[in-house]
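We read letters as residues; the fold follows as tokens. A sample entry reads:
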Amino acid sequence: VRAKIEMEDRTVRQLEMYQDDSITVTYNDGCKLLLSACSASFLHMDMNSRGQSCPSSCPNRLHQITQFAVSEYRQKLNHALEFRNKFAERLFLCDLNGDKPKQIRDVAVKVITWPICAHCIEYTNSGSQLLHSKDRNACIELMPNGRLFTVTYWAASNKRDTCSGVTHYPVVRWCSVSDVPDMWVCPLKLLVTNGQRNCIECSHVDEHDCSVLHDPLPIMCRNVHLHHWDKSSLHQPGLSDMLRIVWSDNVTYRLMWDKQCVEAYADQHTVIRSCDPQGRYYNMWTSHNGEPNQFKINIDHLPQWKEFSLAAVTGRMSRLLKAMAAWRGEMLTQSICWMVNNEDIPTMPRGQCLVKEEANLTGIGRFVAYRSGRIYIAHVDHTVLEMQWPQDDQQNRMLLLESCQHLPAGYCRLLLSSGQYHMIPTAHAPQPYQRLVELYDDT
């Protein structure tokens, strides 16, 4: 990760990935690039003379859909997406350069089958262990330190080429032995057992010789109202504020909230992991002549290190641990756009509803009344209210039953700006929705 980013873009000051897979990239000139959790859209901010970094106060901001990004921002987006796909739970594959990806018609890239025999393991001159899939289209590599591994494979995108079928992209995933995704348990266990290293840490799964890959995220997002660009005070603290990965000064830091610890990768040969929440003691793994070495370090007695500043790395890890300990947000206070199942959201049929009256009400929003008795109001704060009124006419009553089948009598449906739906009784609406219902009743 360090060499790749430093070689490709020397203008990057810091990269941050959050628990919802959103990305923030800070550049040396003060500019920022923000990727939504699904990466289907981005926000680029040029800092003004006062150095304001809040999206709402930045005058030079550009908000675009990722696949339609103008050429000025494509290189930045490519670097950000490459960083994202190394660590994100779900891939986002989008060709921004117009380069034709590799075409494979007959390879089932959704499932990777691994050999389970030790003699299939290969070794590099640096001491890494390699295991190729049976079709040799995927490879897992355990670094000599025994704590970091990568998986390289061809991933199929959701975008199809009419002439050549499914398009495929080369993907490199970076994982820690301390936090192994279930799909990589089987091949990694073979490598770890062969090297007689420490046991891997993962959730309980049945051992098998296949890795079932997640589908990549769609190019377009259907829940753009769930994108959070301002991480200051527009919402309660949640997953979009919890750091998962930080890259700074050529060092990558991984925050493990469930274990309350931090790992640092100064390079492919050195891994440092905190041992206590206070950040005073650390375990350090290195390799020499292909052999792993492990020892403990104390911040009060740090050894000298040529390749990087050990004091700077442990100091940064200590600050991250303190920030984790001081966290007061909730883990599940937000809906993540790519996790929302749109099939569960009730839809309102429109075929039989004819508009009777509509108007734009100043300070309230857009008001639409249908002949069936359905009322639709989009408030200026992006809250949407749907109501229904009883009809005496038999024909309109039939239209009402067909068009408002999801609204029981005496209830209205409220869609909040957060994307959450609420069924509210019109006669006794609870706070804080009572004022909204009364206001719409008057209209």
